[in-house]
Design a protein that fits this description.
- This protein is mostly helical.
- It has 16 helices and no strands.
- It has one domain: MFS general substrate transporter like domains (Growth Hormone, Chain: A), CATH 1.20.1250.
- Helix 6 runs antiparallel to helix 14, helix 11 crosses helix 13 and helix 14 runs antiparallel to helix 15.
Length: 452
C-alpha cells in the first residue's frame, strides 16, 4: 500500500483549500482555449481556405478520434503504473505540455496549400499531446480528495477555468492588430502563442504547489485483463460510460456545426463574439447555481435533470431562420446555464467509480478509469462530429453560401439541433437511477479507510 500525505491540500474542516482548487484547475483554461477552435472552428476554416470537403474532414475526425481512444487507454495504464515514481502523474503532464506547444503551431498556422494529409498528421500529434496532459490530469484529480461533495467542488473549479478559456477565445479576436473580428487563421496564430506561453506556466505551477494526493492500494495488479474485469463487473461504470458517451456524441455534433450554423446558415457571424460572451455568462451563472446544488443534492440526479432541460431548450433552435440573432442569443444563454452541469458532473463522478473499484479489487485504477472515460468521450465526440458534418454534407449543405435550399436547411438542422438534443434526453434517462449516491460513497470511503 502506498499513501501520499495531503495535509497541505485541505483545511481543518476537510475541505480543499481555495488555493489548491485554483492552482489545480488553472491548466483547464488553456486546454479549453486550444480545444475550442480545434473541434468547433478549425474544420470550417480548413474547408473554406483549402477547399477540403466537410465529408472528408468528417471521416478524418472519426478515424483520429478512434485512434486517440486507444492511446488514451495506453497512457492511462502507464500513468497508473508510474503513479508512485518520480513526479508521478505530473511528469506525464509536463511531457504533454512540451509536445502541445510544438504541435499547436503547425495545426493553427498552416502553410499555403495545406492538404488533408497535413491536417491528419498534425491533428494526430496534437491529440496525442493533449492526451498526455488530460488523462493523468483527470486521474490526479480523483486522488486529491475522496469526499463526495469535495469532488464536486473540484469539478466545478475546473469547469470555471474551462469557461475562462472561452473568455480568452472571445477577447483575442478583438485585439486591434487583427484584421477581422471573426475567428480566422490570423486569430488562431495568436491563440497558438497564448497556449505556448500560458499552458507551461500553469502546468508547472500546479505540479510545483499542488500535492499528489492519496494513492491507496492493497496490490498493484495493473493488467489489461484486470482492467477489463473491473469494468465488466461494474454496472455503475458501464452506465456511466454509456451516458457520457451518448452525451458527448451530441456535443460532437453541436461543436462541429455551431460555427457553421451561426456563420453560414443564420448569417450572423458578426455576432460570434457576442454569442461566446452570452454562453460564458450563462455558463458561469450555471456553475454558481449548480455548484451550490451539488453541495446538497445527488450528482447523478442533477446531471439527469440538467440534461433534460438543456435538450428541450436546444430544440428551440429548429425554429430559427437566417438573421434571427436575438432569439439565438437568448436560447444560448439559458441552454448554457443548464449544460454546464452536464459538463462538470462527469468529472466529479469518475472519482467515486475509482473508489468503488479500489474497495472491491484493491487497485487504484484512476488513470485507467479516467482514460476509459476519456476514450469513450473522444470516440463519441468524433462520431458525433463526423455524423453531424456528414449529415450536413449529404443534404448538400456547404459553408459560405448566400442562399440554401430547403433540403440543405433540413440537413443542417438535423445535424446541429436534433442530434445534440436527442443525445441529452438519452443521457438523462440513463443517469436518473445511477446507483452510486452520497450515502453509498460515504460507506465506500469508510471501508477503504478501515482497510488502509
Amino acid at each position: 500500500m502506498t499513501q501520499h500525505a495531503t495535509n497541505t491540500t485541505t483545511s481543518a474542516a476537510g475541505r480543499l483549500a481555495i488555493g489548491t482548487l485554483v492552482l489545480f484547475a488553472l491548466p483547464s483554461m488553456t486546454l479549453q482555449l486550444m480545444r475550442g477552435p480545434a473541434f468547433g472552428i478549425l474544420p470550417s476554416l480548413y474547408a473554406e481556405k483549402f477547399g477540403l470537403s466537410l465529408t472528408s474532414i468528417a471521416g478524418l475526425l472519426l478515424i483520429l478520434r478512434l485512434i486517440d481512444g486507444v492511446t488514451d487507454i495506453g497512457i492511462g495504464y502507464a500513468s497508473d503504473r508510474t503513479q508512485d515514481g518520480f513526479f508521478g502523474r505530473k511528469a506525464w503532464m509536463l511531457i504533454g505540455t512540451l509536445l502541445t506547444a510544438a504541435s499547436i503551431f503547425m495545426l493553427y498556422v498552416p502553410p499555403a496549400g495545406a492538404t488533408l494529409t497535413y491536417l491528419s498528421v498534425w491533428f494526430f500529434l496534437a491529440y496525442l499531446a493533449w492526451t498526455l496532459i488530460e488523462v493523468p490530469y483527470s486521474a490526479w484529480g480523483t486522488e486529491l480528495t475522496r469526499d463526495y461533495r469535495e469532488r464536486s467542488r473540484l469539478a466545478v473549479a475546473r469547469q470555471v477555468f474551462t469557461v475562462g478559456g472561452s473568455v480568452l477565445l472571445i477577447v483575442i479576436p478583438l485585439l486591434p492588430f487583427l484584421p477581422s473580428r471573426r475567428i480566422t487563421f490570423e486569430t488562431l496564430h495568436v491563440v497558438a502563442w497564448t497556449v505556448a506561453i500560458i499552458l507551461p506556466l500553469s502546468v508547472l505551477a500546479a505540479a510545483r504547489f499542488v500535492p499528489r494526493g492519496q494513492s491507496l492500494e492493497r496490490n498493484h495488479s495493473h493488467t489489461l485483463r484486470e482492467l477489463w474485469l473491473s469494468a465488466r463487473e461494474s454496472p455503475a461504470f458501464q452506465r456511466y460510460l454509456a451516458a457520457y458517451a451518448i452525451q458527448e456524441f451530441g456535443v460532437g455534433a453541436f461543436g462541429a456545426l455551431a460555427f457553421i450554423y451561426i456563420d453560414s446558415y443564420l448569417g450572423i457571424g458578426i455576432y460570434i463574439s457576442a454569442a461566446y460572451a452570452i454562453t460564458i455568462i450563462g455558463g458561469w451563472a450555471g456553475l454558481a447555481w449548480w455548484g451550490r446544488a451539488l453541495g446538497k443534492g445527488e450528482k447523478h440526479r442533477i446531471w439527469a435533470l440538467t440534461a433534460f432541460a438543456a435538450g428541450g431548450l436546444h430544440m428551440l433552435n429548429a425554429l430559427l431562420t437566417p438573421g434571427t440573432a436575438l432569439m439565438f442569443l437568448a436560447i444560448s444563454l439559458v441552454f448554457q446555464f443548464f449544460v454546464m452541469a452536464c459538463e462538470a458532473v462527469p468529472m466529479a463522478i469518475i472519482g467515486d467509480l475509482v473508489d468503488h473499484n479500489l474497495m472491491r479489487r484493491g487497485a487504484n485504477r484512476a488513470g485507467q478509469y479516467a482514460a476509459l472515460a476519456m476514450a469513450a468521450r473522444k470516440a463519441f465526440l468524433g462520431l458525433g462530429a463526423a455524423a453531424g458534418l456528414a449529415i450536413a454534407g449529404w443534404f448538400h449543405f456547404a459553408p459560405g453560401q448566400k442562399l440554401y435550399s430547403p433540403e440543405a436547411v433540413i440537413g443542417v438542422k438535423l445535424a446541429y439541433v436534433a442530434l445534440p438534443a436527442l443525445s441529452l434526453f438519452a443521457t438523462g434517462l440513463i443517469m436518473w437511477n445511477f446507483p452510486l449516491n452520497a450515502r453509498r460513497q460515504d460507506i465506500i470511503r469508510r471501508r477503504i479507510a478501515r482497510r488502509g
